[in-house]
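[job 4417] fold queue: 2 targets
>>> target A
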Amino acid sequence: MSVVLVDAGGTNIGSVRYALQRLGVDAALTSDAAQIRAADKVILPGVGAAGPGMARLRELGLVDVIRSLTQPVLGVCLGMQLLCAHSAEGDTDCLGLIPASVNRFEEAPGLCVPHMGWNRLSPVTTHPLLKHLEQGDWAYFVHSYAVPVGAYTLASTDYGGGFSAVIASANFHGMQFHPERSASVGAKLLKNFLEL
């Protein structure tokens, strides 16, 4: 099985790669369109802001490449947000693969933005990506923008209200948290993705 990490400049690429190595998969880091198209699985990692993230994909000529993929694709953190239609962060048009808008958390007493740290996952449907995920399993988050709960939501998390923690539409999937930093739960979900 060939797995590629899209080299879109995310600072979490190294840790995602190590997490995959622990599962016995050596993922190639690439921005080569042909290599991305030929892979069995594609992962779009990302840490940072939506505007620069999309600008980097445009620079590399990868926007239409990613949109055309038919194999399982996983966006992680910012990578998940870039799969959506639009982000309020910098008023950015994203890839438009999942019909959702990304909005900033509302600041409120006792709720710090960014949302940073461990929080519980709540599966809202059954899906192969969630195999063996239990209600209340913990995952590690670092983000200021979130995708609301919608028809594409597989699992949610509560932080001053519910938001999407895991999403999917057709062959495109996203995890808002960092599976590579989420211990055994993250490893389990990455393994599930590799088995799709």
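>>> target B
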Amino acid sequence: MTHEHHATAPTGATATTESDQLPDDLIEQADRFRSAHAAVREQITHVMVGQDNIVDGVLTCLFAGGHALLEGMPGLGKTLLIRSLAQALSLKFNRVQFTPDLMPADITGTTIVAESAEGHREFQFQKGPIFAQIVLADEINRATPKTQSAMLEAMQERSVTIAGTTYHMPRPFFVMATQNPIEQEGTYPLPEAQLDRFFYKLLVGYTTREQMHDILDRTTRAVEPSIEPVLDADSIIAHQKLVRQVLIAPHVQDYAIRSVLATHPESDYATRLVKQYLRYGASPRAAQTLVLSGKVQALLAGRSHVSVDDLRSVLLPALRHRVILNFEAQAEGFTSDMILEEIIDTLPVDEGA
């Protein structure tokens, strides 16, 4: 059973009424949002086979203004997905291949001595690859923690401080990182503070037999599929602003809050599995993620308000990287998804229920 990006009717919702509709001045914007989402998705599917949940998750991160972490074994199309998205957007794109010898300055940039037109020597900041609108951090957990931390300020503050000077990122700024499962040799687990900066953690699984046939048909023949840019920076920023205008009722927002509190072992809302198998629960940033991604789901469904089912459908990618298992869970083979599934299945819609 999985709750990740499933489509269900909103819990406790009745038929759509006139009061449920977006205000007149936002209806056209909402239509453009859905059209843009569909257009980008269509371009990506020209080269991507299957992985629909992963594509939808990455697009949710983009339109909510967050960053995406994709985890899976090598060769499953993680990098291809991100490259395809970059091609479908008219944005500046840079790729950084993370390796054990990569240094922080290789990402953020460094100050160099340059000669001016008048022949004077002066210090100049040479920007690193982080200064792009879409940044692919490929195999991010193959670099050392020191280098991984170079991404922290850029991801959270949308800026980098070098030698006391702050340099701002272009907008929009979207980091997509790939990582191999931490059990693989030569990987450094991302610190909790780094993981918390990612809006979603998406698990990329293996393709089916039929999908494998489709992949071979597309990649071993003479004609290569092409991707056309369908969205620019101004449009993306406008869509991100629209997402924040979607309404959320107090009881639905409270459900998001209780979902996060339920991951804290000492909380009154903690489930049996949480108390037994989690060391630490999710941060307040997890609640922000639930609400914003719920707003994206509501817009895609043509609603002006977030439902509890919108939150349930995004809870796994929003929280799975923000909870920390204890040794007992690891020894008994429990995953964070198993524990979060129990929260989804047992947490009542209303606190008094």
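[job 4417] complete. Note on B: Residues 217 and 263 are 44 Å apart (CA to CA).
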